[in-house]
Design goal:
Helix content is 25%, strand content 30%. With 352 residues, it is an alpha+beta fold. The radius of gyration is 25 Å and the shape is globular.
Length: 352
């Protein structure tokens, strides 16, 4: 059976439940209460979560089963979200309350105005400036991965007193988290919808670039890298972005960053780079390849993560109720920002 919503009318039990709950995906997380009846938790009109009994759907998971799945999903997602996690830890995120009901996020780039005038009496005529704005769209796609249990698996787990095997749910979550991380890094295919395109650090059109020397090249020293990282910082400063920065590096750099900066030195290359003014941390990202580096100013005018929906698992039955389908999904996309003149605080270093 197909479930769909067209012209405000829902067809199918899943679509009807979503429409009735204003696209609150918690409606697709029914659980069995202590009295054996089916309940869902949704957002009430007062903005608080409410638990209510439903009669048009039968739950197969208990509250404890959902808690087990959710714990596994959060645990599996965190290690794969290093760059995204950095943004969220720094407060560089914007949450859309009902991301399922929004397909495009609209944002503006703002120009600057001229310098202030100086005069003794304030009568000197200054330039009469005004800000200019350019409207852009950012798509809000759902990142998702499916898995399923047969009803017999669930019954066996419940009757045997053992928890569900969550290995598949864990693997599905890792795939979703990896895709969210790659979107931020610009390593996923660009996604376009509604007149907008999602860009990341390495494919953003307005990013600055820096040519790096391969550490395998003849004559390369740690001082070579120091000079090139200083050039990346200068590029950011010349674009009116003055830090603080995080320097992201590919795993290929680790073997060189953890060597002594100089012969018989007690300071590693990594430690020496961290001493540069404004560089708050150096982080290795699994998905960066070759000898790529990214210098990112950690401020909301450069980048933030749009959260339309955090990691969530939903459920629906199929095959006459003999199979329970699950989907791990989230709405997490990067918003890479620039000013009206195209200036940004992202410098992408590559070996050519």
């Amino acid at each position: 059976m197909d479930d769909f919503i067209f012209n405000g009318a829902a067809s199918g039990s899943v679509a009807q439940r979503l429409l009735a709950c204003n696209f609150d995906v918690r409606a697709l997380r029914p659980f069995i209460g202590e009295n054996g009846k089916t309940y869902i938790t949704t957002m009430g009109k007062n903005g608080k979560l409410e638990t209510k009994m439903i009669h048009n759907a039968t739950a197969t998971l208990r509250y404890e089963d959902w808690k087990l799945l959710d714990d596994v999903i959060v645990k599996a997602a965190k290690p794969r979200l290093k760059a995204v996690g950095d943004l969220r830890a720094a407060g560089l995120q914007y949450t859309i309350p009902n991301g399922m009901g929004t397909t495009v996020f609209q944002t503006e780039t703002m120009s600057d105005i001229g310098d202030a005038s100086i005069s003794m009496d304030g009568l000197r005529q200054g330039a009469n400036d005004r800000l200019e704005f350019d409207l852009t769209n950012i798509p809000l796609p759902i990142i998702h991965k499916d898995f399923s249990y047969s009803v017999r698996q669930i019954a066996t787990s419940r009757n045997g007193g053992s928890p569900l095997d969550t290995n598949t749910a864990e693997a599905a979550t890792r795939k979703v988290a990896e895709e969210a991380e790659k979107l931020l890094l610009g390593l996923s295919s660009t996604y376009s919808f509604g007149g907008g395109t999602i860009y990341g650090y390495t494919n953003y059109l307005y990013r600055m670039t820096q040519i790096l020397t391969s550490p395998t090249a003849g004559g390369w020293t740690a001082s070579t890298l120091l000079t090139e990282v200083l050039a990346m910082r200068t590029s950011s400063q010349n674009a009116y972005h003055y830090g603080p920065w995080v320097l992201y590096v590919s795993p290929a750099w680790d073997a060189y960053l953890d060597e002594d900066f100089k012969a018989a030195s007690d300071v590693t290359v990594r430690e020496r780079l961290k001493k540069l003014d404004g560089i708050s941390d150096i982080r290795t990202l699994d998905y960066l390849t070759d000898y790529d580096m990214i210098l990112v100013q950690m401020s909301s005018d450069v980048v933030r993560e749009i959260i339309g929906m955090d990691f969530t698992t939903v459920q629906w039955p199929s095959d006459g109720g003999l199979k329970e389908n699950f989907k791990v999904m989230c709405i997490m996309v990067p918003q890479i920002r620039r000013d009206f003149n195209g200036n940004t605080g992202i410098v992408h270093g590559t070996v050519v």
